[in-house]
Every structure is written in C-alpha cells, then in structure tokens.
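Input chain follows. Return structure tokens only.
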Amino acid sequence: MAATSKENVREAILAAAREAAMAHGYGGLNFRDLAETVGIKAASINYYFANKALLGEAVARRYWEDIARDLEDVSAHASSPTEALRRYPGIFRLSLARDNRMCLSSFMATEYDALPEPVLKEVQAFADVNTAWLRRQLVAAELVAPNEGEARARAVYAAVAGAQIVARSRADITLFDSLIQSYREAGLLPN
C-alpha cells in the first residue's frame, strides 16, 4: 500500500470514528462497524490503531485541534472580539444540525469513568482550548476584567455545551437557539 493510500485509510478511519463518537460516544467506537464504514477488514484497523484507547485518543486529539483552528478562524473573520463571542455558539449548533450530533468531547466527558487516561486528557484539552479562547475574547471585548476571565469563560463554555446536550435530548435545534438567546438576554453572552 502506498504511503498516500495508507494516510488516506488512516484519515478515513479517523473520520468514521469521529462520526461514531459524536453519535454514540467512546462506547460507540467499534472496530467492526468502523471497518465496514471505511470499506476495510476490521483487523486492518489494528495496523493504524493497536487498540480502541489509541483510536479514541487520536480522535479526541484531532477533534480539539480542529476546533482550535475553527476558533482561530472565527477570531480572524469576526469584526471584533464581541462578534467572535456572538459566533461561538454556532460551532456547537453545527453538530446538532448534522443529524442531531453532539460535540464529541462533551459526549466523551459524560463517559468519564470508562475513558482510558490518555483519552480523558485529550477530552479535557478540548475544554481547555475552548475556555482559553473564550477568556481571550471576553477580556479583549472588555466584558470582564482579566482576573475574572477564566471563571466567565468556563461558565460560557458550560452553558453552551449544556444547551447542546438539552437540545440533543429533545432532537430540537430550536431549543438550542432559544437557550442561547436566553444566555444573551441574561448577559452571559453578548447580544
């Protein structure tokens, strides 16, 4: 198999695993199902990922790396930090709009007791990336003092992730939208 072809298979496995985890969490990472989705033999996945924990770790790492890039893209294309903060819930909304999926890291975080330590660290990195970005935007927008930024960032992250969980439980994206609007009206997020 050529190097490019090997890389394509690895990327296809990661993409299929991401979708499975967004729909079913860490518990939904099943080599047989993933192999069927990718069109390879289940044993072939072991060539790329020796076990489920290594696959889960790679998927969770890729997820927070992708989100970090998405957040920087939001910052780069927003007219101000306040505008970037207004756009932030949209990242979570996209998952709901895709067949009522949920943020992979939020889903995996609910499986805390079942996660191997390396997977848990990558899941926690997702929250850290989000709160660090939110803190920078909140402080730059002068919505909080620098010493209050971390607490407010965690509150915003928890509220938006929570809104996604509630909306997913009802399969109702309009519920997500109304919760986000209520956060804006309450002053947690800028209008």
